[in-house]
Amino acid sequence: MSKMNQLSAELDELKKCGEILIKVSDTLSxxxxxxxxxKPAKEPKKKGETKKALTLTDVRAVLAEKSRNGYTxxxxxxxxxxxxxxxxxxxxTEYEALLAEAEVLGNA
Length: 108
Known about the structure:
Helix content is 61%, strand content 0%. The protein is mostly helical. It folds into two domains: 1-34; 56-103, no CATH class. It starts with a helix and ends in a 5-residue tail after the last helix.
């Protein structure tokens, strides 16, 4: 193949790529300009769907925040209520109940 034929073939390919880019651009413009239906902020839970398991880090973050806000004694009392001197001694199955009680601290 001569250099001119090769250059011509490459130019044809470049034109095809440009045309494809224009089509993609038009499609994107169309999608962005078309109003879409608003989705609800939170999808309803489906039957059988489980909650994300709470971790020690999740619980520690909430309790640390409560403690910083002046509820250190209340946080310690909660830990004792669950039979522990420190958070790491609490059974992970009790994290959800512990958090539920901790979140109301200061809301009374």
